[in-house]
Amino acid sequence: MTKWFSLQYSLDTVAAIVAAAGLAGVLQTFIIGKHFVIPTMLLAVTILFANLARFGYRDNAFAKNLLFWFGVLVTCHAFFALFWAKTPREILGGAFLPVYGGVFVIFALLSWQYARRNRLFQ
To answer: Domain coordinates of the chain in residue numbers?
Structure first.
C-alpha cells in the first residue's frame, strides 16, 4: 500500500486513478446514457492508462518513460492554460488560477520527482 503513495510511483497512481475514472465513465455512458460508440473510445483510453499503471508498478522502463512524458504534457497544458485558456476561465471564474496553478505546480513537482526517483535520465 505504501507503494501507491510514494513519489517513485506517483504517476503510476495517477494513471490508476485515471483508469478507474475512465471505467466509471464507460459504465455511466453505456448503462445510463445508452451510448455505444463513446464508451468504446473511453474504454480504449482506460485500458491504456490501466496498463501503464500496471507496468509502471512493475518498474517497466517503457511505461515509466511514457508516464513521465504524460506528466510533462499535463504540466505544459496547465502552464499554457494559465495564460490563454478562455473556456475554463469562464467556467471556473475566480477559482481558475488556484485550480490550474495548483495542477501546474503539483504535476511539475510530481514529474520532476518521478524522473529523479526512477532514474529516467541517468
So the answer is: 7-117
